[in-house]
């Protein structure tokens, strides 16, 4: 009887430790999680796309303009969003220059004349698919404390397991920082 | 939530950028970030078409000033 109780306690102890290890590693080291939605097209697929999130960038530490991040949605703390940082603290950025596309017929210059300065401790984030993204253009810049990590790679499970190369098994690809030198 | 953020116009940003250039006396870098305007052509098969939308930034002394203007993307859309 004592041996049985001892075994149960031992198994429970290892189970509890495993849960704690998973929780700590998910919170502070690394997370592999599914993303959904069309806001990050064409970088991330609408569904069945899984992202590799590095947690050392939590709270925006070491994040740069052009990085893809996972953050808590400011208008709904139960949801998280994947967005690209398009403004760091102190930067002057246009609120919505893509709005000009829908104003092509009018001569309004407003999309290119409406700037904000990103407040300290905040970042401006937008989805790569500007046409279908709910982001800082709607809920303003987000506190860096809401950033949960940086997306460094993704696996698109819509792709076949083997795609001709070891480097893209299961649709694997690196998610790059897209803030690059402009060719003159 | 973010604090209330005042909206400023291009002239105010250009003046700040000019002041930064004079104060720091260093070369600014021109950088680009491309995002997209994607529209679905077939929802069932998840087929979509994306048009690039380039955004330009002048980076001076660690601060980015967006310089995207009407001509920046006009060539892509003609």
Automatic annotation (TrEMBL), chain A:
Compartments, as annotated in UniProt: Mitochondrion inner membrane
Root EC class: hydrolase
Active-site residues per Swiss-Prot or TrEMBL entry: 39, 83
GO molecular-function terms, A-Z: serine-type endopeptidase activity
Membership in a protein family: Belongs to the peptidase S26 family. IMP1 subfamily.
PANTHER family: MITOCHONDRIAL INNER MEMBRANE PROTEASE SUBUNIT 1, PROTEASE FAMILY S26 MITOCHONDRIAL INNER MEMBRANE PROTEASE-RELATED
The protein, known as: Mitochondrial inner membrane protease subunit
Gene: TPHA0C03820
Automatic annotation (TrEMBL), chain B:
Protein known as: Uncharacterized protein
Any GO CC annotation of this UniProt entry: mitochondrial inner membrane peptidase complex
Source species taxonomy: Eukaryota, Fungi, Dikarya, Ascomycota, Saccharomycotina
Organism: Tetrapisispora phaffii (strain ATCC 24235 / CBS 4417 / NBRC 1672 / NRRL Y-8282 / UCD 70-5)
Domain of life: Eukaryota
